[in-house]
Amino acid sequence: MFGKHVMAALAALAVAGVLAVVAPMSSASAAACATPWSSGAVYTGGAVASHNGHNWSAKWWTQNETPGTAAVWADQGTCGGTTPTTPPNPGAFVVSEAQFNQMFPSRNSFYTYNGLVAALSAYPAFARTGSDTVRRQEAAAFLANVNHETGGLVHIVEQNTANYPHYCDAGQPYGCPAGQAAYYGRGPIQLSWNFNYKAAGDALGINLLNNPNLVQTDPAVAWKTGVWYWMSQNGPGTMTAHNAMVNGYGFGETIRSINGSLECGGRNPAQVQSRVNAYQRFVQILGTTPGGNLSC
């Protein structure tokens, strides 16, 4: 600590204009933000980009490595003075409405963004588990699979009507009260079969067994059935798609959980690649990386 004589001398110098006394930088005087980071751009050592309210300097060549999550980026401190380093509401959905519209430029108006956000209340862990990168990857993975199932959120119901009578398992004790051909594919994951309508309805507190048409008339119900399957059903896989993403098994494992018996293991590589392509596009829109194990 300075002695009182030294402090007096420093004060005198300041008064004389010899010594400038510098106050701590306020958030309003933070450095200007550099050009925003782009997941598709290539950065060489020394290049600077802004992301999440900070400027970042690349240590070496990089592409698709998110600042703040990859060692290649060095934090140069806050910029702009107004943008927080974390979302103002940590519970908010990681996909904005603008990003959603960018992902699905030709979507059917039935598949509303507000319907999707409303559906998330049923499963608060969806896209809100783990790091920011994991949350964005899970949202992208879900929407990529939804994109494939619905032709880009265009189709609300299964297009092959010849399949409709096949989705009634009359051996179930509750039967098919809505009719033999009532349990065809509907909604973002194309929910089908009477036992799936029963299970989803029981989980969501909605009588879908008797009212399966709710999945094609109520956007929030439709989205809830998609999130229900994602969060709770293994399908032909060994884990839920949610667990695959939050536990690091990769996007390929989500394909296995949704349609692995028909697509994975070389059964239909074109269908698998369609899902992978959408996932890679969506993580880029969300400003993150795809991770490993993309195929099944």
UniProtKB/TrEMBL annotation:
| Gene Ontology molecular-function annotations | carbohydrate binding; chitinase activity
Q: Which organism is it from?
A: Streptosporangium canum
Show the Pfam families listed in the entry: CBM_5_12, Glyco_hydro_19
What is this protein's name?
Predicted chitinase
> Which N-terminal stretch is annotated as signal sequence?
1-30
Query: What range(s) does the Chitin-binding type-3 domain occupy?
Result: 34-76
Disulfide bridge partners, by residue number: 168-176, 264-296
Q: Which UniProt keywords apply?
A: Disulfide bond, Hydrolase, Plant defense, Signal
Gene Ontology CC terms, in alphabetical order: extracellular region
Q: Which residues form the active site?
A: 149
Q: Which GO terms describe its biological process?
A: carbohydrate metabolic process; cell wall macromolecule catabolic process; chitin catabolic process; defense response to fungus
